[in-house]
Amino acid sequence: MHKNRINILGTEFDNFTEKQFHLYLDNDLDFKANKFIVTPNPEIVLSARKDANFSKIINNADYVIPDGIGIIKGAKILGTPMHERITGFDTLKYLIEAANRKLLKVYILGSKPEVIEATANKIKKDYPQIDLVGYHDGYFKDEGEIAQEIITKKPNLVLVALGSPKQEIFINKYKDQLNAVWIGVGGSFDVFSGTKKRAPKIMQKLNLEWFYRLVKEPTRFGRMLAIPKYLNMINKEKKARQKNK
Ligand code: UDP
């Protein structure tokens, strides 16, 4: 897979369809492979440029999937178009459904106590074939203790919602101690548990999900300034690549 990666300002994305990705995931779960999935958006691409260690963690992951229309647009502008956007949220849903189908063990970590509680309850109610071996909110003191708990309980799937780069740093540090599919899911539990709503389907289709989030959470405005900055850098990169041709 790594051969087919598309470089967007230093972050190397896998270029496959969502269907193909799901086939890989099914295979990984069936064979108890050790896999690390990251789902960068433009904001993460920019932070990876400023932090060599974070960039290395992202680029060394087994799957780097394009979460965010900005990545797809950027790839197109750079003349290296990608198949399609694959969101972290849809991946989370697919993994939970697959774990239910395959009767697997799952551990969920992160988000606020009431959110992780609601997420655990939803899994128990709607995905009864999952063996939820444990869960913990994302506001803990002793990281090593939590990691040890996860490793001892031997889940096949570990979902980590600590936000970036915290979740990726955590997974990278401990993943080699347990063969499982590990993924950082950001704020996905907030939506999955029903605590926060996702944008209406029509807005998702029109690529206006970011606008919905901005209206609902105006404090995200600062973070969203990353998008024009990102597009500006993409255009500069395009010019630089044309010069070097
Ligand atoms: N979070 C956490 N522990 C922390 C910091 C954040 O569990 O120390 C959680 C937070 O409650 C939220 C998620 O991490 O559920 C981050 O959400 P955000 O919206 O920032 O992530 P995004 O989806 O934008 O990547």
Automatic annotation (TrEMBL):
<keyword id="KW-0808">Transferase</keyword>
<comment type="pathway">
    <text>Cell wall biogenesis; teichoic acid biosynthesis.</text>
</comment>
<comment type="function">
    <text>Catalyzes the conversion of GlcNAc-PP-undecaprenol into ManNAc-GlcNAc-PP-undecaprenol, the first committed lipid intermediate in the de novo synthesis of teichoic acid.</text>
</comment>
<dbReference type="InterPro" id="IPR034714">
    <property type="entry name" value="TagA_TarA"/>
</dbReference>
<dbReference type="Pfam" id="PF03808">
    <property type="entry name" value="Glyco_tran_WecG"/>
</dbReference>
<comment type="similarity">
    <text>Belongs to the glycosyltransferase 26 family. TagA/TarA subfamily.</text>
</comment>
<dbReference type="GO" id="GO:0047244">
    <property type="term" value="F:N-acetylglucosaminyldiphosphoundecaprenol N-acetyl-beta-D-mannosaminyltransferase activity"/>
</dbReference>
<keyword id="KW-0961">Cell wall biogenesis/degradation</keyword>
<keyword id="KW-0328">Glycosyltransferase</keyword>
<keyword id="KW-0777">Teichoic acid biosynthesis</keyword>
<dbReference type="InterPro" id="IPR004629">
    <property type="entry name" value="WecG_TagA_CpsF"/>
</dbReference>
<protein>
    <recommendedName>
        <fullName>N-acetylglucosaminyldiphosphoundecaprenol N-acetyl-beta-D-mannosaminyltransferase</fullName>
        <ecNumber>2.4.1.187</ecNumber>
    </recommendedName>
</protein>
<dbReference type="GO" id="GO:0019350">
    <property type="term" value="P:teichoic acid biosynthetic process"/>
</dbReference>
<dbReference type="GO" id="GO:0071555">
    <property type="term" value="P:cell wall organization"/>
</dbReference>
